[in-house]
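Researcher: First entry.
Model:
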Amino acid sequence: MKNFICNTCGVQVGSSAAAPEKCLICNEERQYVNPTGQTWTTLEEMIQSQIYKNNIAPEEEGLFNISTAPGFAIGQTAYLVQEKNFNLLWDCITYIDSITIGEIKKLGGIDAIALSHPHYYSTQVEWAEAFDAKIYIHEDDKEWVTRPSDRIIFWSGESLELTSNMILHRIGGHFKGATITEWKAGNARKGVLLTGDIMRVVADRRWVSFMYSYPNFIPLPASTVERMAGQLDEITFNRIYDAFHRIIKEDAGAAVQRSAMRYIDALNGKLFNT
């Protein structure tokens, strides 16, 4: 029996004797099946290939990024957030090996894992078991969990305080349970948001954007973005880190509001005439 991993999205499924015919995550309009067909691997095969390694690098005091080279599947970045006596892994990546585990243990280990949305569930159970950690997923995305575990806590409501400085906020949009993390102590206590791609920092680092599907270019409704902007306006933050290591370093709160207005105007035909 093996826990197979989809090569396209990087999400691991429950134990089975043979690879599934379909990936639950990819066979849905927010993701896609590779044009060459559905293929699978396992974590054991990835490790044995000796192709991959994880890079762990500091961002600022109390924050490290974690990424896999060469890139695998979606290629997102995870973040380790350090607090006194509590470390949070924000979002997850597929590849994990003994070297990664050893390096993270030197940084204090992982007490909890929090996920922005199903595309980044990856091998979350492997990570949780390696560090004896709990996994926090909003209950509205429960149907997308492909490898069940007693370590998963399905939280409800609009916010969940993990510590006095780390708060999960369900803001929806990309998925119904789409979540961001507010880190109050980050950026010298000016506040940091870790957003996954619930909000993406775009090529022009003064702006963010919002999408229902990024690979298939399906936008969110104007009303949804307006609601999200209202929720975000109630959170104090100065910096954003997204899932692909793009950063708005200063005045990120104003950037989000400005970006939401531009997005809404574009959808409503007020931004341009072409």
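Researcher: Second entry.
Model:
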Amino acid sequence: MQYEITLPADYDMGVIRHRVATRGPALDAFPGLGLKAYVIRERGVDGSPVNQYAPFYLWTSPRGMNAFLWGDGFRGLSADFGRPAVRQWTGLAFERGPAFEQGPGFERGPGFGAAPRAASRSAERVPPGTDPAAAVERAADRLKELAATPGVHSTALAIDTHAWELVHFTLWADAAPDTAPDRYTVLHLSAPGAATLETGRHW
């Protein structure tokens, strides 16, 4: 799940940093949450044309997601920024990377290795006339290969079967590669269920 709040070009992103620093830990033990990466993009940084707050979630259960969306957390965000469109995908695969268990030099996360500092996201359409099962197989194979890359904390593959769009989201111990279409700074990671997220293909 992800929502994107695009902010004015001259917006003080320190406001978002303070918000995350003071409110982010509230989800560190949220039931049903695998992980929430509090990520931002800043205009002129890592090729971003916008200022944006765009947290990304992996849920271990629909109950947890519903509890968040219909609870005080999302209500408060909507009151402050307006209700954003919330995108949801069906999870296809999840892998832990080398940085998941290795934390020297990095802030320690809540019980699961190094807290990542960066994230990347890419999306690809499954073209009409393409066998979607074959496209998903290829994407899952690439995810497995990516997970072995030094610096990867964890990586996920999901699909929107309405738009037939695959999304790849990866957390990085330090910096995301320059080739990633969307690169983010991770301000905080709430990950109460990260160690229990099912790895491999989810079918």
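Model: Note on the second entry: Residues 155 and 170 are 4 Å apart (CA to CA).
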